[in-house]
Amino acid sequence: MQTYKPKREDFIPEGAEERSDLESDAVAYLFENRGRPCAKLFVGKRARPEWHYWFKTPEARDKRIEEGFRDRRRTLASKTRYRPSNAGIEVGHIFVASWGYDQTNVDFWQVTKLVGKSMAEVRPIGSVDASSENVAPMTEHVVPYADHFIGPARRVRISNSGFNPESFIHACLWDGKPCYASHYA
């Protein structure tokens, strides 16, 4: 049995005025229903509207449409900001992640190979204590020990903000400063 898949045209009332946003892919349709100003906002290639409201005044409708356009522009901007890309990442770059509950663990990874546009091969590397003498007990400041690999290579998807070596860890590009770490043994 074949089902009918609705199209965008099925949701647009007859005689509706189309208003497009020049900076995004959002389109609003303005119409009246029972004497009340109404509007539907569509985004992207979606057939169904993002929202469908009636308003007390045409000014309130115009304001909500502008808010919808602004929200869509913001969404598109955030998607491009975090799109996976290894642009700017080079072999030898070091990433760091600080994580833990009762203690602060610091892990370092070094990029050993770039794969395609959004993947890289990384390997965990060791760290060296760079603390001064005035550090609290069971704490230290560590820096990476480049090219001192302590584990096998693995492929990760890199975005502009870094990568996730584990589900609970996010690694970002190391800024060159010593990182705080603590331990209990």
Task: Write structural notes for this entry.
This protein is mainly beta and 185 residues long. It folds into two domains: 8-81, no CATH class; 93-182, no CATH class. It contains one helix and twelve strands. The strands form two sheets. Strands 5, 6, 7, 8, 9, 10, 11 and 12 form an eight-stranded antiparallel beta sheet that branches. A four-stranded antiparallel beta sheet has the order 1-2-3-4, covered by helices on one side. A hairpin with an 8-residue loop joins strand 3 and strand 4. The mean pLDDT is 89.
The figure for the number of domains is 2
Q: Strand portion, in percent? A: 35-45%
What structural class results from the helix and strand content?
mainly beta
Shape: elongated
Distance between the first and last residues' Cα: 66 Å
Mean pLDDT: 89
**What is the radius of gyration?**
26 Å
Q: Main sheet, how many strands, which sense, barrel? A: 8 strands, antiparallel
Estimated helix fraction: 10-25%
Total helical segments: 1
Give start-end ranges of low-pLDDT stretches: none
Series of H and E elements: EEEEHEEEEEEEE
Number of strands: 12
